[in-house]
Amino acid sequence: MTHPFTDPAAIAAIERYGRSALAWELLRRDPAYRDAFGRLKALPSPGQAADAVFAARWGLHFP
């Protein structure tokens, strides 16, 4: 197995999609985040702010 820090495909993906994509990939794999997301009572509609406590806990910032 190729180490992720030397895997050319992984490096290319980070270069292509940027740090925010890498951060999202790590976050979405976190079991605690997935559990917290599953406990949200409602998802925000497009253009609306996410639950402030949830966003602050997970360091989420949306433009």
Explain what you see.
The protein is mostly helical. It has one domain. 56% of the residues lie in helices and 0% in strands. The chain is built from 4 helices and no strands. The protein is elongated, with a radius of gyration of 15 Å. It starts with 7 loop residues before the first helix and ends in a 5-residue tail after the last helix.
Question: What about the largest sheet?
Answer: none
Average of per-residue pLDDT values: 80
What low-confidence regions span 5 or more consecutive residues with pLDDT below 50? none
Structural class: mainly alpha
Number of helical stretches of at least 4 residues = 4
* C-alpha geometry: elongated
Percent range for β-strand residues: under 5%
How are the SSEs placed, and which strands pair?
Blueprint: H1 8-17, H2 19-28, H3 31-38, H4 52-58
Tags for this entry?
mainly alpha; 0% strand; single chain; 63 residues
Give a quick summary of the entry:
With 63 residues, this protein is mainly α.
